[in-house]
Design a protein that fits this description.
The protein is mainly α. The protein has 2 domains: 100 residues, no CATH class; 197 residues, Orthogonal Bundle (MetI-like fold), CATH 1.10.3720. Helices cover 77% and strands 0% of the residues. Helix 3 packs antiparallel against helix 4 and helix 10 packs across helix 11.
């Protein structure tokens, strides 16, 4: 009977499939060229079409569009020589086309034709003006919002995790805490605003409490669910090997419940972000919520839209960081489930 070389067998089973993406990425990236043409068109639109109302920083916005177009051309021409950067840019190629179309349409209906009336609708140049001229106030607001959110989210996540582990492990704790959670958990954290500002000495500490409360409930529920759903066979095997209760909690229950915990953390981040804005509008002296209220009071709608854009980017960045932490913490799952 003829023997077959295992190495030859593996090479024969997967001949060109693995190399196909590499060959495909080595050519000209057509989507990138289309996106680059779109951004060049946006720059031409900004500079060549006269504006109904003169807009500041039009030239700077056109330059930014051309820089984006140049970057897309470089990635399209160099294939995958830029490594991870090229792969990421190619992945978001269709979004680059959509962004160019969206920016061009936004420019037309505001600065060029005035279909959307000023000042309720701001042009892209007006948003850029806020970032150039009011960056110091906006930057300070972002700093205070991040600091407030970090404190409230940390304490809320910690309290929710400890409570979830406790009631998931102990039937006595579950008996007493479960009804309380069902009573106060569904209530929105903003409903506790009057009580929070009365009980806490400063508006900052009251805001931290409200954010922590909004974070703690989903983390508690999901952690409790994760602990309660751990396969009992894991405990039996560990007890057979002489494991103590502390080992069962720290080495068996908590690692097995981590996927549920991170779902709770994601939910808590969304709710805490909403409470952050409301709390800053009502009490604190700085932050994105305060900045929104200040801009609204002065009818500075461009500043409002700029703050909303910053808030969206900040929330997206925080979610991305949390995803990275989850992937690192649950790296042991990659061999068990498909990501």
């Amino acid at each position: 009977m003829t023997s077959i070389d295992p190495a030859f067998s593996e090479r024969a089973e997967t001949p060109a499939v693995e190399n196909a993406p590499a060959r495909a990425g080595a050519g000209i990236w057509v989507v990138g060229l289309v996106a680059a043409a779109g951004w060049i068109g946006v720059a031409a639109l900004i500079e060549l079409w006269p504006e109904i109302i003169p807009q500041p920083y039009g030239w700077e916005l056109a330059i930014i569009s051309l820089v984006i177009a140049l970057g897309l051309i470089v990635v399209a021409a160099t294939g995958k020589l830029l490594g991870t950067v090229a792969s990421t840019v190619r992945y978001y190629g269709p979004w680059a086309i959509a962004a160019a179309v969206g920016l061009g349409a936004w420019e037309i209906v505001t600065a060029k034709t005035g279909l959307l009336p000023v000042p309720f609708f701001s042009s892209p140049q007006s948003i850029l003006e806020v970032f150039f001229d009011d960056w110091s106030r906006l930057g300070v607001s972002v700093y205070y919002s991040v600091a407030l959110l970090a404190k409230g989210y940390f304490f809320g996540a910690l309290a929710g995790f400890l409570t979830g582990v406790t009631i998931g492990w102990s039937r006595v704790a579950s008996y007493w805490v479960h009804p309380v959670l069902r009573l106060i958990g569904p209530l929105p954290a903003t409903a506790w605003l009057p009580l929070a500002f009365f009980l806490f000495p400063t508006s900052g500490s009251a805001s931290v409490f409200l954010i922590a409360l909004a974070t703690a409930f989903p983390v508690t529920i999901l952690t409790w669910s994760g602990i309660a759903s751990v396969n009992r066979d894991y405990y039996d095997i560990a007890r057979t090997l002489g494991a103590k209760p502390s080992f069962l909690i720290l080495k068996v229950a908590i690692p097995a419940a981590l996927p549920h915990v991170f779902v709770g953390l994601f939910m808590g981040l969304g709710t805490s972000f909403a409470v952050l804005v409301i709390a800053e509008m009502l009490g604190v002296k700085a932050g994105l919520g305060w900045y929104l209220q200040w801009a609204q009071g002065w009818a500075a709608y461009a500043n409002m839209y700029a703050a909303l854009l910053v808030m969206a980017l900040m929330c997206s960045a925080l979610i991305t960081i949390l995803f990275r932490v989850r992937d690192w913490s649950l790296s042991w799952q990659k061999g068990l489930v498909r990501w």
